[in-house]
Amino acid sequence: MPERQSSEVDDMEITLNTGSTVYQGAIIKGGKTFADAEGYMREAAYCNINPEDFDALGRPWFVRITNEYGDSVVLRAKKTNTQQRGEVFVPRGVWANIVVTVYTESTGSPTYKNLKVDIEKCNGPVLDPVTLMRQEYFGGNMHKIWKEKAED
Amino acid sequence: MTCTDVTCPVCGMSCDDIYIELTDDAVLTKNACLMGDAKFQELRSHHRLTKPLVHGEEASWDEALEKTADILVNAKRPFFFMGSETSNEAMAVGIEIAEYLGGLVDGNATICHGPTIMGLQLSGQVGSTLGECKNRADLNIYWGCNPADSHPRHMSRHSQFARGFWTEQGFKGRKVIVVDPRRSPTCEAADLHVQLKPGKDHELIDALMTMLRGEEPHPTVEEVTGVSRETLNKMAEMVKECKFGVIWVGLGIASSRGHHYNAAIAMRFTHECNKFTKFVINANRGHCNVAGFNQVLAWTHGFPFAVDFSRGIPRYQPGEYSCVDALSRGEVDAMIVMCANLGGHLPKKAVERLAKIPMIAIETSPGTNAFMSDIILPGVFDGMECEGTFYRMDNVPIYARSFTKPPFDFTESNEHTLKQLFEIVKKKKAEKDAREAKQ
């Protein structure tokens, strides 16, 4: 375990923006969210971080993002110059939606962008979409399809 | 089989120049973008849903329709979600069933450009067709959108790189401003990237409007928006100097804090620009026929989205009857989703509700939406396997022809599916009413 640098922090408050990318779009529009779960994870389960924030977080492989209600999701960390300091980008998808809040300001549209969240370094793992949805949404409801199949 | 000039049913641009070569086991496309090609490949994919499923078990078509009608007729607050990847004709039937049963109805616009439409209702939109932008625009402002990713052919067909009647120089005669907190791939083509702080669109537009009126913006403008005065001045000058400017707004405006107020001030900014030059504002709408849902609901019931029929008359209230709000409050007790991927696009709290209530999906692939559904009625690809009308993102209707048939014979189109369902719903509702009258 490398020693922590003085500039590193345990967790930081950061602004989350979500949005589409063409590769994530190709998976979603092509209906391959589960047929190509690996591709879906590759194109939607990551978090773009500014290089300075990336260093401050301790150059993580994985990060955990937590919203104000305590919902959290683990994503792969990517260091990119496309982000400003203090903001991260996660493509649209089931992972980002775990932390997107239903606060719609009476418009019907959730806070997909410009959402204050906490970000911290973690050891993974990033869950595949089936496991993630089963874990987050099917607490005890045995009547939904795919659930039993996913357990096989 | 070879087909030309096929309409692409993927994003809001409805590109109508796709070339398709269809064989028994493969699909070859030309002109389609990455997303369009992925969708056309679905015609020959191995995972296509071709049989009705009830609780994960194969069922007959009639049985699946009967069970669907049972759920809808017996629900107290059924929700009809008319997704965007289908035709106006299918949406119209869905809306009719919702009205008949006194349910709620909403479409993809609610989680997309719904706030932009509310902004339009507040301020009024100076709009245009995509053709006008292609032929006239010498300034494109991409505000909170990233067409390089979300509409890959947008810049080459309708805006930046296209050669038009009065813009035959193409990109050499046009300027681009990108307003985006992140350096998106679209910025590669930009003359000016206004990298504002996230969620400060309203403040930035306000400052620009002040400058256009010849007054000084507030001294804290740089600190608040994160944009230098130099960049602001440059942007204001570019706006004043152009002959025909277009603001393409994306979800950066509609999904950010301020939602419809951001859209409303962006439209007022467009009014202000018209004092100097011709300026229009268009929404970069992302999902196939998402504009069509607004149009169909508006011309049948007077409102663009988020409508409740429970009192026998259409009532419009975003934030109350809209999908995310109604689901997260826990008041919806049955849901039918046509051609939309709600499982993969709604926030957690809303999807939690979907997991608890009976859900029916008209669906083509076993994705996140099918994962949440109790009953699956196989969907048909509009514009490929059946014909129909799509509204393009500039609200121009495009008639999409079909070039093949669905891989099953129990339905011809999603419209046909809903019409069959409606007949059974009417029968069951009459039985239920008679039973209740007896008691």
TrEMBL record, chain B:
Domain of life: Archaea
Pfam families membership: Molybdopterin
Residue ranges occupied by any Molybdopterin oxidoreductase domain in the UniProt entry: 48-409
Sequence intervals crossing the membrane: none
Coiled coil segments of this chain: none
Gene Ontology terms for molecular function: formylmethanofuran dehydrogenase activity; NADH dehydrogenase activity
GO cellular component, one term: membrane
Keyword line: Oxidoreductase
Keyword Oxidoreductase attributed: yes
PANTHER family: FORMATE DEHYDROGENASE H (PTHR43105:SF14), RESPIRATORY NITRATE REDUCTASE (PTHR43105)
Top-level taxonomy: Archaea, Methanobacteriati, Methanobacteriota, Stenosarchaea group, Methanomicrobia
GO BP field: methanogenesis; respiratory electron transport chain
Protein name stated in the entry: Formylmethanofuran dehydrogenase subunit B
